[in-house]
Design goal:
- By secondary structure, this protein is of the alpha+beta class.
- The chain has 2 domains: 3-94, Ribosomal Protein L25, Chain P, CATH 2.40.240; 101-204, Beta Complex (RNA Polymerase Alpha Subunit, Chain A, domain 2).
- Helices cover 17% and strands 38% of the residues.
- It has helices at 15-23, 45-51, 116-119, 178-181, 191-205, and strands spanning 3-9, 26-33, 36-44, 62-66, 69-80, 87-94, 101-110, 123-126, 130-135, 144-147, 156-158, 169-170, 184-189.
- A 6-stranded mixed β-barrel has the order 1-3-2-6-5-4. Strands 10-7-9-12 form a 4-stranded mixed β-sheet, with no helix packed on it.
- A hairpin with a 2-residue loop joins strand 2 (26-33) and strand 3.
- The relative contact order is 0.16.
- Part of the 50S ribosomal subunit; part of the 5S rRNA/L5/L18/L25 subcomplex. Contacts the 5S rRNA. Binds to the 5S rRNA independently of L5 and L18.
Length: 224
Amino acid sequence: MSITINAIMRKDQGKGASRRLRHQEQVPAIVYGAGKEPSAITLNVHEIGHLLENEEAYTSVLDLAIDTKVEPVIIKDLQRHPAKNLVTHVDFLRVDMKKEIATSIPLHFMGEEDNEAMRLGAILNQFVTAIEVSCLPANLPHTIEVDISNLAMDEHISLTGLVMPKGVTITALTHGDIEAHDQSVVAVQEPRLMAEKEVVDSEGEEGAGDKVEGGDDKPEGDSE
């Protein structure tokens, strides 16, 4: 089932224009990618808010209708008001349905109630909650299921142990040295061992400086 979001083109840009739009219950947004010029657009705050109540919207190819033109996009980034939880800006990335895209997909851990070790008091430690995958837009999964029902005490599942849908690849495992990138995703551990690991991790983080991560090559937005 396709999901459509309506938008209109806009000419006014900048923080002042964005504030005026929000007072009018409109949300500034931008759509870019696929070798085309970026377009500044406006969304209805109620429509985009209702759309995002459906979690599948974050991992679906959407039909973005700008005036009379419709093009496939995915949500690449969005910002919310820190107090009101209203959407304040959205970045859409155009997609070519014939070319693979890379995007983050959440992990869904299942079988916890059937895990014998956890029934006896073991703790589930989730190291990763989402992974970046590469696939054709038509194959884009909404979640990656991780079955932990048979995971015994001190056992773990790594990236190479995930069961991936057909046509979907974990991008971290495409860089040549698979062992170097094959990180643990989830483990069943004794509570004491898990507490000790958390202490070690917190001590290792002390004194670390702020780290800036690189993002996609996209145009400057007009969000605040």
